[in-house]
From TrEMBL:
<dbReference type="Pfam" id="PF00743">
    <property type="entry name" value="FMO-like"/>
</dbReference>
<dbReference type="GO" id="GO:0004497">
    <property type="term" value="F:monooxygenase activity"/>
</dbReference>
<keyword id="KW-0503">Monooxygenase</keyword>
<dbReference type="InterPro" id="IPR051209">
    <property type="entry name" value="FAD-bind_Monooxygenase_sf"/>
</dbReference>
<keyword id="KW-0560">Oxidoreductase</keyword>
<protein>
    <submittedName>
        <fullName>Flavin-containing monooxygenase</fullName>
        <ecNumber>1.14.13.-</ecNumber>
    </submittedName>
</protein>
<dbReference type="InterPro" id="IPR036188">
    <property type="entry name" value="FAD/NAD-bd_sf"/>
</dbReference>
<dbReference type="InterPro" id="IPR020946">
    <property type="entry name" value="Flavin_mOase-like"/>
</dbReference>
<keyword id="KW-0274">FAD</keyword>
<keyword id="KW-0285">Flavoprotein</keyword>
<comment type="similarity">
    <text>Belongs to the FAD-binding monooxygenase family.</text>
</comment>
Amino acid sequence: MASGGSGTDGVQRVRVAVVGTGFGGLGAAIRLRAEGIDDFVVLERAESVGGTWRDNSYPGCACDVPSHLYSFSFAPNPEWPRTFSGQPDIRAYLEQVTDRHGIRPWIRFGHEVRSARWDTGTARWQISTSRGEFSAQVLVSACGPLSDPQIPDLPGLDAFPGEVFHSARWNHDYDLRGKRVAVVGTGASAIQFVPEIQKQVGRLVLFQRTPPWVMNRMDRDITGLERAVYRRVPAVQKALRGALWTVREAQVGAFTKRPAVLQLTEKLALANLRRHVKDPVLRAKLTPDYRFGCKRVLLSNSYYPALAQPNVEVVAAGLREVRGSTVVGADGSEHEVDAIVFGTGFHVTDLPVAEHITGAAGHTLAEEWKDGMAALRGTTVAGFPNLLFVIGPNTGLGNSSMVLMIESQLNYLADFLRKLDATGAAALDPTRSAQLRWNDAVQRRMTRTVWNTGGCRSWYLDGRGNNTVLWPGTTAHFRRETRTVDLSEYDRITVEN
């Protein structure tokens, strides 16, 4: 159990408070124990672990990164059933990892963080949750950017008489069979659930602002023989993971330095579209007019065939408003529907958690980031001492496994705590000059990437058009940059007894 005790004021005092139990939060807890630190808690607003893989349970939910790469290096899973695993299997994996590493006693379920305020006098984070108060020397935010669904503010939506929900909050109690359903959005979630519900609904109207690039999903069952080999000879699975990693690392240059190289892949994607969609009018609606890779490339063998079915209509425009049970597209088209399902993504460049964290100067992280998210090495933020992010600004990936980035940031977290001990400081606060140098370098590198030059508008970009989400390099490069904490980039904070 966490060794921190509660004072007479009822506040539980710990060295480290971690927020979230997705890959980042569970990984942080495991790493803390590996470092010999037991004085911590993991605060989770839900009643089970899993993060986005708990919350996203929509039909067809699966990962678009190969299973053997989408797992912790220290916790390989020889039992993955498919080369690209589904949500139930990934969630089960996270439950197993939680139990295998014995970290469940440190988790406080049902503890939604309402505020976290830096107390300059004590050099500690004062944390208020829905079930109690905590005080921590170090605060680790592992909420992740895919935590809070984003639903557009549409005129008339509140008065819609039918069912409304976001894909990340799927209403499994609502029977879609025979219903007239409007789906808003054509991102990574929509291309997975649309083929599943198309088989059930009476009519499906898909509102598409921008068509995605879609490639075939090279998915298959992993045989019992293969799984037996992975169990008995772990080196084989490790070698496969290394091969998958190498291939993905080799692709990075095309996205970050030489987008023109992607023209060949565009031709393959267009051939895939022609093969599945014979109707020239529909095919024109589904043909992207921007460079391959500018928006996240999606993988599906069933999306295009589903859209070609007679009970599906693609509206090549966004949803403009709702009038009673009628949804109205930006093109003026009107459609009577019984339900609206939003596949409109998440608050990524405007992380809701930032509104609840108050730094040394008395302003929130949301205020600090009003002109765009920024952090030193994607992890720490000037003016917010002893606050570390797992999956912070500019740590996202467009083509590989986020678990690789998470493990790099866990290395940085471990060294951060070591440096605190070694220096005797109460806290470390990144200097604004170090943070500015880091982020200027990241944004300079970003100017050549396909995400900034590909001619699209994606969720990678904030309101000012800056890419504050993705990492413009390889995972190996990021790991080198986060291997150790450079104390010259930090101010040391001490507290007199």
